[in-house]
Amino acid sequence: MKRTYFPGITDVVVVTDPAEIRAVSMEPTLDRDFTGPAPVLNRKRRGKMLRIFSVRGKRYPTMLPRTDQARADAQDKLWLRLNQKAEQVKDGPAELEPLAEWVRGAGDAQRIGPLVQQSVGRLFVENFTATPESWAAACTVLEAAGSRNMLKMLGWRVSGKLKRAKILLASMVNGDMAGVNGISVALHHIVDGLKKMRQLAADPALQPSLTTAAVVDECLFPANTVTRQAKARGEIGGCPFRRGSLFILGLGSASKGAANRDLLFLSQSWSRCPAEKWVPALLEGVWKRV
Fold first, then answer.
1. Can you tell me the distance from the alpha carbon of 99 to that of 219, in angstroms, rounded to the nearest whole number?
2. pLDDT of residue 277
3. How large is the C-alpha radius of gyration of the chain?
4. Looking at residue 152, what is its pLDDT?
5. pLDDT for position 156
6. C-alpha–C-alpha distance, residues 31 and 37, integer Å
7. Predicted pLDDT at 82
8. Predicted pLDDT at 187
9. CB-based contacts of 255: which residues, under 8 Å, 6+ apart?
10. pLDDT at 207
């Protein structure tokens, strides 16, 4: 762990070791309760997250604490429902053909985003149909989350561009916040995975050595980072922290290697992704059709 601490200014701990990430993700004191006193830059950082990952005052599930019972119940129900759908999708049903066709090389790079958005959207609304506008909205959310351009972000706040993007996406899944997260944030990791799959499919020299399991493993991409905030003073892994300290968990690098694949979806944590089985099953189904 690497802590950057200047009293009253910033208090951030970056965690990249897999074992330490597991410890932080399970520590009750470290949560997604992004409230209370904190250093100036910490407040700005968490404020940006909450502005981006909320719609009309309702937070994305990934911004809600473990103590939020409604979130926990909805997360468990969605996990069970997606597990059932995973069993249906892993054998490569016909509905995956548009994705498989793109992986084989049909269509340009811009086509895959809306296709994935539609597949994810139909987990929440049966007749969900992605449009150029809905895909552009998802790209706006992604850009906002990663941008350090303060002037651009200020302009988007003044113009309402980001707000309009999220309202559009929310309207397409009937206000289901897990659905909003799926079609605005989580889908980008699947898009990255299918882009990687297209590269693998285009290399005939690799074909004899590629098992389906190996392809799926190559094509799983996690959120690059997730954030936790300390609710009280404490210490973990020899690193002291104060109330309001922010912990940045570097899942992107830590999840590499078979022994650490649980970190892709934080499968051992209370905050596990409900799609932890569905996403690999989707990739498996697409590759089987390819």
1. 14
2. 97
3. 19
4. 81
5. 84
6. 15
7. 97
8. 97
9. 18, 222, 261, 263, 264
10. 75
The token pair that represents 47 in the structure block: 């404020």
Name 2's bridge partners: 14
Tokens encoding 257 = 């290697």
> What is the rounded distance in angstroms from the CA atom of residue 247 to the CA atom of residue 17?
13
CA–CA separation, 215 vs 194, rounded Å?
A: 10
Q: How many CB atoms lie within 10 A of CB 81?
A: 14
Query: Given strand 2-6, what is the order of strands in its sheet?
Result: 2-6, 10-15, 246-249, 226-230, 30-31
Pull the structure tokens for residue 233.
């003073």
Q: Which residues pair with 59 in a beta bridge?
A: 54
Low-confidence ranges of the chain (pLDDT < 50): none
Tokens coding 180: 């909003």
Q: What are phi and psi of 13, to 5 degrees?
A: -115, 120
Nearest to 182 by CA among 169, 198, 195: 169
Q: Identify the pLDDT of residue 147.
A: 78
